[in-house]
Amino acid sequence: MENWKAMLLLVASCQGILLSLALLTSFRKRIGPSLFLGLILLIISLELLNDWAIQIHYHQSPAAIPFWLLESYLIIPPSLYFFILSTTRSDFQFTRKHLLLYVPAVAEIIMETAATIRFRLTRQVTDLFRIPAWFFFTEILPVIGIIAVLIFFGKQLRLLSKNQKASSQTRQSLIKLYSFFATFLLLSIFWIADAVFLLPVFPFEEGIMIVFLFTLAYTGYSSFTFFDTPQTSDVPLTESETQSESPLFPNYNDRTELARMENLLKETKLYTQPKLSLEDLANALHLPSRYVSYLINTYRATNFHSFINTHRVEEVLRKINDPAEQHKTLLALALESGFNSKSSFNQVFKLHTGQTPSTYLPKIREKV
């Protein structure tokens, strides 16, 4: 029975660690929900791995790698808080000041590591948990933090439920969020019973964590888009369905921000930058990139690159009709308008005008 339990703990923890690493490395330029969910899953996985180590008496081995030093419960409350913010608020941006919430966890890891190094060098045991302040800091404080975060989580879910349209996509997204909320709530109840009231409920905690990791691993491996949040997927709307405020981004007025985006492009001609990205445009507007993508997809019925290329083609056409630009070659006009090669310009130009540049230009010059 013990061998069977140890094997189950090892498999669950290894799956959780692999999944957490996949989530931690899935983000690129922008820190988002996957990073914070990955941190939470990593702590849960290390907890189960530590339980496995206890089962096989791994801690007593002289060559044991002290991976449990990274297992700080203080990582969970801020990670869950940022996961909620980055999932439910389109304007959330992770900044350096947010790192301050992870200082307690770093302090715990440093202290535990120092105590372990001291023991290995001198064989003198430093039992930090005998210090009441340390026990409160590492065991009770995370419980208080998780309770506060879950209250906030519940409020955000209620607001999100009111703002979301009843499409199948948004319903699925809400179901995922409610599932996370229910899991963390259940874990927290047992966590409080264990840490505060010293009740023998840890086996139930283990069972919940194992089921949680196996479920996420199976679902994630079969479809990694399962970890997309409601705001990472654009929901196209017809013109009759559009409103002054987006159901996905209630903090913004769509038509105001759309007009501001068009004015910015007209005044600054950002589209003439060959390597312009969605993030660049979003930064210039001081808006989340997901929201800018939503505006383009919903109100212009196209993606970012096609939207920008449309502005570039219009710029080329304006230059062609401008007498002051008549001395320039068509390729020069294209490069000035933001295209980075002749082939891409020819392809995009034909897509937008229905004619190749070589066919279109003589007709325009004849009119001029």
From TrEMBL:
<feature type="transmembrane region" description="Helical">
    <location>
        <begin position="65"/>
        <end position="87"/>
    </location>
</feature>
<dbReference type="InterPro" id="IPR018062">
    <property type="entry name" value="HTH_AraC-typ_CS"/>
</dbReference>
<protein>
    <submittedName>
        <fullName>Helix-turn-helix domain-containing protein</fullName>
    </submittedName>
</protein>
<feature type="transmembrane region" description="Helical">
    <location>
        <begin position="99"/>
        <end position="119"/>
    </location>
</feature>
<keyword id="KW-0805">Transcription regulation</keyword>
<feature type="transmembrane region" description="Helical">
    <location>
        <begin position="174"/>
        <end position="202"/>
    </location>
</feature>
<dbReference type="GO" id="GO:0003700">
    <property type="term" value="F:DNA-binding transcription factor activity"/>
</dbReference>
<dbReference type="InterPro" id="IPR009057">
    <property type="entry name" value="Homeodomain-like_sf"/>
</dbReference>
<keyword id="KW-0804">Transcription</keyword>
<feature type="transmembrane region" description="Helical">
    <location>
        <begin position="6"/>
        <end position="27"/>
    </location>
</feature>
<dbReference type="InterPro" id="IPR018060">
    <property type="entry name" value="HTH_AraC"/>
</dbReference>
<feature type="transmembrane region" description="Helical">
    <location>
        <begin position="34"/>
        <end position="53"/>
    </location>
</feature>
<keyword id="KW-0812">Transmembrane</keyword>
<dbReference type="Pfam" id="PF12833">
    <property type="entry name" value="HTH_18"/>
</dbReference>
<keyword id="KW-0238">DNA-binding</keyword>
<keyword id="KW-1133">Transmembrane helix</keyword>
<feature type="domain" description="HTH araC/xylS-type">
    <location>
        <begin position="255"/>
        <end position="363"/>
    </location>
</feature>
<keyword id="KW-0472">Membrane</keyword>
<dbReference type="GO" id="GO:0043565">
    <property type="term" value="F:sequence-specific DNA binding"/>
</dbReference>
<feature type="transmembrane region" description="Helical">
    <location>
        <begin position="131"/>
        <end position="153"/>
    </location>
</feature>
<feature type="transmembrane region" description="Helical">
    <location>
        <begin position="208"/>
        <end position="227"/>
    </location>
</feature>
